[in-house]
C-alpha cells in the first residue's frame, strides 16, 4: 500500500543511489511541488543540493520575499535568490498569445538558470516538481487539439542544459504530494497553499503584460486571497485567482466618470485540477471583495465572478 512515509523512504534510497556524490540543482517555484521535491532531496543528499528561486516579476504581492524566508528559515534549504523581473518583462513585451507567453517564460527561465550556473556548472542533475497531471496534460493528452496547454515545467530544460532530470513526484497527484510534504515536516500553511502556475501572473494578465497591469492584478489578487483566508474560506476552494482583463469600461466614482479595467475572480473546487467546478462562494463575501477591489485599487472599476466549469473551460483564462 502507498503511504507517504514509505514513498519517502523509497525515494531517498533511489535519489542517493542515482546521485552518488554528484551535485543536484533544483528550481524552486514557491509552490508546494518543487518545495516538496527540494526538501526530499535535501533530506537524501544534504548540501549536494543547491536551489535557485527566481523572481520573474510574475509572482504575487510580497511573494518573493515571503517564500525566500520560508525556504531559508523554516526549511533550512540552501537557496540562491535571483531577481530577473526586468529580463522577463523585457522578453514578454508586446506578446499576447498565451502559448507564446509560456514559451518565452520557459526560455527565459533557462536563460536565467544558465547564467546563474554558467561559471561553475558542476551540476549533474536537475530536480523538478513535475506532477502527474502536468505530464498527462502536456505530453500524452491526445484530444482534438493534441495539447491543451503546454505546461512550461515539463520538458524543455534538460536538453539545453545537459543535466539529467530528477522528478521524484512525477507519478503523484497533488493531494499525495501534500501528504509527502506533511510527512517531511513542511509547515501546514505552506502545504495548504493553492496551486500556482509556473508562468504565474503572466497568464493572468490577459493580453499584453506591463509592469502597471501586473501591479494592478497583484493588488486585486491580494485582496481576494487575504479575504478568503480572513473568512476561513481559503481551504474550502482548490484554487482561487484573479484575472486582469484588457477591457476598460465606464464607471462612476464620486462625481467623476472613470474608464478602467475589469477583474475577473475565479475560485474552483476540484480534486486534481483535471476537472473543476466553480466554487459557490457566499454572495456577501463576493460583494465585500468586489467593493474592496473597486474602492482600493485605482485602475479597476469592475469585477465579475467566473461561473464556468472545467471542462469545457479551463481553470486559468490563458
Ligand atoms: P488549467 O487552466 O489547464 O489549469 O485548467 C490546471 C492547473 O494547472 C495550472 N496551470 C499551469 N501550471 N504551468 C504550470 O506549472 C502552466 O503553464 C500552467 N497552466 C495552468 C493551473 O493553475 C491549474 O492549477
From TrEMBL:
It comes from the Bacteria. Its EC number is 6.3.5.2. GO terms for molecular function: ATP binding; GMP synthase activity. The keyword Nucleotide-binding applies. Residues 2-193 form the GMPS ATP-PPase domain. Keywords: ATP-binding, Glutamine amidotransferase, GMP biosynthesis, Ligase, Nucleotide-binding, Purine biosynthesis. It catalyses: XMP + L-glutamine + ATP + H2O = GMP + L-glutamate + AMP + diphosphate + 2 H(+). Pathway: Purine metabolism; GMP biosynthesis; GMP from XMP (L-Gln route): step 1/1. GO terms for cellular component: cytosol. ATP binds at residues 29-35. Catalyzes the synthesis of GMP from XMP. Homodimer. This is GMP synthase [glutamine-hydrolyzing]. It comes from Rhodohalobacter mucosus.
Amino acid at each position: 500500500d502507498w503511504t507517504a512515509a514509505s514513498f519517502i523512504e523509497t525515494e531517498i534510497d533511489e535519489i542517493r543511489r542515482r546521485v552518488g556524490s554528484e551535485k543536484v540543482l533544483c528550481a524552486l517555484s514557491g509552490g508546494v511541488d518543487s518545495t516538496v521535491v527540494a526538501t526530499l532531496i535535501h533530506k537524501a543528499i544534504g548540501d549536494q543540493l543547491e536551489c535557485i528561486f527566481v523572481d520573474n516579476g510574475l509572482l504575487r504581492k510580497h511573494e518573493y520575499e515571503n517564500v525566500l524566508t520560508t525556504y531559508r528559515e523554516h526549511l533550512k534549504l540552501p537557496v540562491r535568490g535571483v531577481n530577473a523581473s526586468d529580463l522577463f518583462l523585457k522578453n514578454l513585451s508586446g506578446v499576447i498569445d498565451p502559448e507564446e507567453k509560456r514559451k518565452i517564460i520557459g526560455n527565459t527561465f533557462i536563460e536565467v538558470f544558465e547564467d546563474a550556473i554558467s561559471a561553475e556548472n558542476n551540476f549533474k542533475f536537475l530536480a523538478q516538481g513535475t506532477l502527474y497531471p502536468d505530464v498527462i496534460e502536456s505530453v500524452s493528452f491526445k484530444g482534438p487539439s493534441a495539447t491543451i496547454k503546454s505546461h512550461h515545467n515539463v520538458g524543455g530544460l534538460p536538453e539545453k542544459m545537459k543535466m539529467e532530470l530528477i522528478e521524484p513526484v512525477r507519478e503523484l497527484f497533488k493531494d499525495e504530494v501534500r501528504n509527502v510534504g506533511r510527512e517531511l515536516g513542511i509547515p501546514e500553511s505552506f502545504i495548504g497553499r493553492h496551486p500556482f502556475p509556473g508562468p504565474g501572473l503572466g497568464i493572468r494578465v490577459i493580453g499584453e503584460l506591463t509592469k502597471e497591469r501586473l501591479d494592478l492584478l497583484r493588488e486585486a489578487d491580494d485582496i481576494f486571497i487575504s479575504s478568503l483566508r480572513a473568512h476561513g474560506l481559503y481551504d474550502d476552494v482548490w484554487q482561487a485567482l484573479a484575472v486582469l482583463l484588457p477591457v476598460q469600461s465606464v464607471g462612476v466614482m464620486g462625481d467623476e466618470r472613470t474608464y478602467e479595467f475589469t477583474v475577473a475572480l475565479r475560485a474552483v473546487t476540484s480534486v486534481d485540477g483535471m476537472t473543476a467546478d466553480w466554487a459557490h462562494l457566499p454572495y456577501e463575501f463576493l460583494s465585500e471583495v468586489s467593493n474592496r477591489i473597486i474602492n482600493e485599487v485605482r485602475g479597476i472599476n469592475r469585477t465579475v465572478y467566473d461561473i464556468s466549469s472545467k471542462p469545457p473551460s479551463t481553470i486559468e483564462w490563458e
